[in-house]
Amino acid sequence: MRRRSVYKMAALVSSAIVVGALAWGCRPFIDRQAKAQNPVPMKAAPLAAGDAGKLAAWIGSETNGIEAFIALRDGQVLMSQGAVDVPMNLASVRKSVMSLLFGIAWDRGLIDLDATLDELGIDESRTPLTAAEKRATVEQLLQARSGIYLQSGAETMEIKDGRPRRGQFLPGEHYFYNNWDFNVLGVVFERQTGLSIGQALESWLAVPLGMQDFSPEHVLYDSDDSGSDFGTYRIHMSARDLARLGTLVQRDGIWGRERIVSKEWLDRSTAPHSRPDSAFYDGFGYSWWLNSELDTVQADGWGGQFLLVDRDHDLVLVTRRDNGNSILEFLVFSQFKPEGHPADIQKLDLMLREMTSTPGHSGAH
Questions:
Q1: Where is the Beta-lactamase-related domain (predicted)?
Q2: Counting C-beta atoms within 10 Å of the first and last residue's C-beta, which end of the chain has fewer, N or C?
Q3: What is the CATH number of the domain that holds 75?
Q4: Does pTM surpass 0.90?
């Protein structure tokens, strides 16, 4: 009788643990229904039905399950398909978004690209930076050329396996796509501007651009277990709001009649400062990917988060995969669902170039 009571109690405790774990795992990262402060619908100039049908058919049969697709030409929606209004985790697209924020801060005199980590008081408590590492500048962090090869949050196996030896290269000598650089940039930005990333996104970009789905609470900070003092910030944004940022780049920093970010910054940040070893990109700027053959500027995030800016043809494309709004959804996505592929959005760009080209359109910007 006593043994049965013990078994019953153990079963109850186990059930409670399972229920608690499921409840924790299902808790949403963000409120996807949070209201934007200044939502402004975008104008539309739809593709011909036949062309839109061809794109939709190609997306359905040839890609790894694009869940949201939107294409703009000169700021007007050509085609919108799927969950374009759902804020999803941008993954590494956050780095290109941060590049825009740094540009606005630089325009306002709040950021010195030549400031060193030593001057900014950046150091690690558990693995202190060397004197050489402290000479890395803000610009070198944006370029992924800091020469600092420490562990950081949200690393891929590719980063872990490819990381150079500590001290192998001095700051500025070598390109290596390292999350340490990008995570530290988030801290530098907030210290130098006095704004959180969410606040800056809201007031500097979301409100003036009329973003329809963004809220400052859509920026989250991980509790880091990598050994670094600088945690990962995560930005959730919808496809249609991300397309607005692409249009801002396509228009050289102007939205409507307002200058949001300088052309000088965009020229510097989308110039090829490094040559990555990639089949899809042959240049890396200030946290932007570049393809010289297509002459495109791109943002690329894990799981299928892509933004492509085709300035010569006035095109902006976004493709998204929902990588989860809870721990459980994230685990299911990462283990069982295919990731998106940069080749898909580049092919869609080529298809749209052909569909939108006209004898009288020069593509001049």
A1: 70-318
A2: N
A3: 3.40.710.10
A4: yes
